[in-house]
């Protein structure tokens, strides 16, 4: 696994080149900013969450390395249509896999990012969007940080 080709899989490069759901979400009712000082990754996550706490729309803006951008892009695809509770579970499973705490959790397509567990500094790049998304869902106004 200690091979950069394992880390930068085609799916990650593709999401970095063509981020999905990139841009400001004009009718967002939740928003959070995130910053990973270790790498310089900066993100804003926008969500439209309905009365049932279901994520009806989600987008992000910002700039960062390929891993942080790909992770944000994949997160938006994963969380659309999910409830806050479902999103929290997916985040917990994703976090467990990329930190190597529990690599058996089924995270579907997000498994493309699991290679970061071999690179502790990159784990923060991969989880930044998720910390930020989590803050947005919970309506926190404090900027999310990986520190
Ligand atoms: Zn990064």
Write down the overall geometry.
globular
Number of helical regions? 5
**Beta-strand content estimate:** 15-25%
On the 0 to 100 scale, the average pLDDT is: 92
Helix content: 40-55%
Hetero groups: zinc ion
Please provide the ordered H/E string of secondary-structure elements: HHEEEHHHE
End-to-end gap: 26 Å
Rg computed from alpha carbons, rounded to a whole number of angstroms: 14 Å
Unreliable spans: none
- Given helix and strand content, the structural type is alpha+beta
The biggest sheet, with number of strands, parallel, antiparallel or mixed sense and barrel status, is:
4 strands, mixed
Tell how many strands the DSSP assignment holds. 4
Strand order of the largest sheet: 3-2-1-4
Could you characterize what this model shows?
The chain has 147 residues and is α+β, with helices and mostly antiparallel strands. It is 40% helix and 18% strand. The chain contains 5 helices and 4 strands; from the N terminus they run H-H-E-E-E-H-H-H-E. The protein has a 4-stranded mixed β-sheet with strand order 3-2-1-4, with helices on one face. Strand 2 (41-49) and strand 3 form a beta hairpin. Helix 2 (10-17) crosses helix 3, helix 3 (66-79) runs parallel beside helix 5 and helix 4 packs antiparallel against helix 5 (120-137). The radius of gyration is 14 Å and the shape is globular. The mean pLDDT is 92. Bound molecules: zinc ion. Zinc ion binds at residues 36, 39, 41, 64-65, 67-68, 125.
């Amino acid at each position: 696994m200690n091979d950069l080709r394992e880390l930068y899989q085609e799916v990650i490069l593709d999401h970095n080149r063509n981020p999905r759901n990139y841009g400001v979400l004009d009718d967002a009712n939740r928003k959070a900013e995130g910053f990973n000082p270790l790498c310089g990754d900066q993100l804003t996550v926008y969500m439209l969450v309905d009365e049932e706490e279901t994520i009806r729309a989600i987008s992000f803006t910002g700039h960062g390395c390929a891993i942080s951008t790909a992770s944000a892009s994949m997160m938006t695809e994963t969380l659309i249509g999910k409830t806050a509770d479902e999103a929290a579970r997916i985040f917990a499973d994703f976090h467990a896999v990329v930190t190597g705490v529990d690599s058996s959790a089924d995270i579907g397509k997000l498994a493309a990012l699991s290679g970061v567990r071999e690179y502790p500094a990159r784990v923060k790049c991969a989880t930044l969007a998720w910390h930020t998304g989590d803050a947005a869902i919970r309506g926190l106004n404090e900027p999310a940080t990986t520190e």
